[in-house]
Amino acid sequence: MDKFVKLTGVAAPLPVVNVDTDMIIPKDYLKTIKRTGLGTGLFAEARYNEDGTPNESFVLNKPAYKDAKILVAGDNFGCGSSREHAPWALLDFGIRCVISTSFADIFYNNCFKNGILPVVVSPEDLEKLMDDASRGSNAVLTVDLENLEITGPDGGKISFELDAFKRHCMLNGLDDIGLTLEKVSAIDGFEKANAVERPWA
Asked: Residue ranges per domain, the chain?
């Protein structure tokens, strides 16, 4: 998993509450177990017209936001089913950070396991960031995980909080497998000692 230390990029505004995982990645795209290629299905029902052509009014289809790395979204983002394809699709599109006032628990935890930083801010701060994100190609935010702050295009700063363990994992690019591999010496030591003490096991 890639480390997340500081991210600077265009932020796309999505002022919609209760965005569920089916909206993030519709069920038609759940046939694969690969983490790649799902970016094309991200918000597919909103991004594409019925004939498959891009819906030019959808934010991620607008030229200023086609390379967005940050999503500023409404309350209760990621609700609905627990599909891990939702963070996979965001990451495959290029989104590394989602900012909202709240997230569904399963989606929130899945983000950390896939290298996406979900940031919780107050309604007042979200309103400011949504305004920043509405500036088109000038909608550049910097999310600094080391200092737990977001810097807007005008230099204004917003602080946020994050569990220390989750912060450590993101800063060091550690998913569940990475955390286990950090203990590989201790695991090897146990296995060798166990082989001596319990050769029949």
From this structure: 6-174
How many of the other CB atoms lie within 10 Å of CB of 92?
Answer: 19
Residues lower than pLDDT 50 in the chain: none
> What's the pTM value of the predicted model, to 2 decimals?
0.88
In angstroms, the Cα distances linking 191 to 160, 185, 188 are 42, 10, 5
**Tens-digit pLDDT profile for residues 32-44:** 777 788 999 999 9
Architecture of the structural domain at 6-174: Alpha-Beta Barrel (3.20)
Taking each helix axis from N to C end, the angle separating 105-113 and 85-93, rounded to the nearest 10 degrees, works out to 50
User: Are 163 and 112 in contact, with CB atoms under 8 Å apart?
Assistant: no
3-state secondary structure of 87: helix
Helices (H) and strands (E) in the chain, counts: 8, 7
In sequence order, which residues have a C-beta less than 8 Å from that of residue 126 and are 6 or more positions away? 72, 99, 100, 101
Q: For residue 159, which of 146, 169, 168 has the smallest C-alpha distance? A: 146
